[in-house]
Specification:
The chain is an alpha+beta fold and 335 residues long. It has a 5-stranded antiparallel sheet with strand order 6-7-12-10-11. A 4-stranded mixed sheet has the order 1-2-5-3. The chain has a 4-stranded antiparallel sheet with strand order 13-19-18-17, covered by helices on one side. A hairpin with a 2-residue loop joins strand 8 and strand 9. The longest helix is centred in the last third of the chain and has 19 residues. The chain is globular and about 60 Å long. It binds flavin-adenine dinucleotide. Flavin-adenine dinucleotide (FAD) binds next to strand 3, strand 8, strand 12 and strand 13. The site of flavin-adenine dinucleotide has 33 residues, from strand 3, strand 8, strand 12 and strand 13.
Length: 335
């Protein structure tokens, strides 16, 4: 375990916010986590890659999860179950799986962050969410210090949601995740962007490697690279509204896009709402929304967390006044 004092967190969050931690622990084993249990019980901030947080102030104690490792748990001719250390970089695991022709997570290539954080917000992209592969999540119960395993059904996965954002919030340190991948993968290319990217390359019968490459190409083109422009991906969730509310909006805004979201509900792209509210590419001091993807709030260099939070609140107010839709933040605000 590595322990440091008075550390800048700029390199530990993709927004590039220069907050400070009085103490920072980097844990590499389950024993390390158990050793600092009192620190976790006192409310230390647990971080993986820092790609889904906004640090709005300095932090007393931060614990960085660096528990690595990959172990095959079970396999037959069709599937393989692998336990990944929670500190493994998500994209590296996707790349490794694709290299071995284990299918299931290739559509989620290039999502920043760690394996351990993936089930927390049930990461997803291009028509696939991690819940489709999760067998279980292993964690240390911060209250008791016990090692526990939660199966997928008990994780209560939803759209960018799970039990780890509610009942188990601040109560667990995730140490590993078991994923079941397919040895006879069926590719998922129903998402329009992926389909078009493959067609552009003349690929009619894509492999998981083709899908992986297409997703990497699309994402590299569309999303700002946090190493060049600080950001945390989509700042808000796409809101789900009732059909009645949607129909009222169609009357006023006939071009409003939507997706079905189950019986009686529609999902509306938050990016469209933000653009209509006049925020696309808008810069306010050191922060703003991205020029081509207004759902992504960016740090133009020296923004602090409070400035970004102020812009996010302003966007929420204008969108609410215009559409009577309350945008929910996808990024975790660290106060
Ligand atoms: C450019 C960009 C693109 C993105 N695209 C997508 C996308 O397409 N789809 C998507 O779903 N997300 C996307 N994201 C969001 C982000 O990548 C995911 O949410 C990712 O899973 C966060 O992982 P992390 O390790 O960085 O988590 P962190 O930001 O470090 O932590 C996130 C939360 O989880 C908690 N946490 C982290 N690790 C642990 C642990 N081991 N135990 C307990 N709690 C823990 C933290 O306390 C915090 O509350 C994007 C982000 C960026 C910057």
């Amino acid at each position: 375990m590595i322990v440091e004092q008075d550390v800048s967190l700029k390199a530990y969050n993709t927004f590039g916010i220069d907050a400070t931690a009085k103490k920072l622990y980097r844990v590499q084993t389950i024993e390390d986590v158990q050793e600092i249990l009192p620190v976790l019980q006192n409310g230390a901030l647990v971080l993986g890659g820092g790609s889904n947080v906004l640090l709005s102030s300095d932090v007393d104690v931060v614990v960085i999860n660096e528990i690595t490792g990959k172990h095959i748990i079970a396999q037959d001719e069709r599937n393989i179950t692998i336990e990944f250390g929670a500190g493994e970089v998500w994209h590296n695991c996707v790349e490794w799986a694709v290299l071995h022709n284990y299918g299931g997570i290739e559509n989620m290539a290039l999502i920043p962050g760690t394996i351990g954080a993936a089930p927390i917000q049930n990461i997803g992209a291009y028509g696939v969410e991690v819940e489709s592969c999760v067998v279980s999540v292993l964690y240390i119960d911060i209250t008791s210090g016990e090692v526990k395993e939660l199966d997928a059904a008990s994780c209560k996965f939803g759209y960018r949601d799970s039990i780890f954002k509610h009942e188990l919030k601040h109560r667990v340190f995730i140490t590993s995740v078991k994923l079941k991948l397919s040895k006879q993968p069926i590719v998922s290319t129903t998402y329009k962007d992926v389909e078009q990217e493959l067609l552009k390359s003349g690929i009619i019968h894509p492999t998981i490697h083709d899908v992986f490459t297409a997703v990497v190409q699309i994402r590299s083109r569309k999303l700002p690279n946090p190493k060049q422009l600080g950001n945390a991906g989509s700042f808000f969730k796409n809101p789900v509204i009732s059909i009645e509310h949607f129909e009222e909006l169609v009357g006023k805004y006939p071009a409003i896009p939507s997706y079905n979201a189950g019986d009686g509900f529609k999902k509306v792209p938050a990016a469209w709402l933000i653009e209509q509210a006049g925020f696309k590419g808008k810069q306010v001091g050191n922060t703003g929304t991205h020029v081509t993807q207004p759902l992504v709030l960016v740090n133009y260099g020296n923004a602090n967390g409070r400035e970004i939070l102020a812009l996010a609140s302003e966007i929420q107010s204008v969108v609410y006044r215009t559409f009577a839709i309350q945008l929910e933040m996808e990024v975790n605000i660290i106060q």
